[in-house]
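Sequence and structure are no longer studied apart. To make this concrete, we show below a single chain and its fold as tokens.
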Amino acid sequence: MKKVVLAVMLLMFVVTAAWAKININTATVAELEALSGIGPAKAEAIVKYREANGNFQKAEDIVLVKGIGEKVFEKISDEIEVGK
């Protein structure tokens, strides 16, 4: 019975994590790499841009990062947020 409860809890965690958006103002390089179309170089560029320019005001501002264009933003727009 414990294994079943554990399996259900693990499944709930995975499903919840899959729906959670990534806060681009606080995400690590590793967390950013989980986004569709974002590899190590783009993830690092996002973090460096944020460190140099401060937090993003809105999710759309991610296109200000070199290498992140409108097409990439369209792919990840449902996966990101700037936090509250």
Q: What stands out?
A: The longest strand covers residues 22-23. The mean pLDDT is 87. The CA atoms of residues 31 and 50 lie 15 Å apart. The beta strands are 22-23, 80-81.
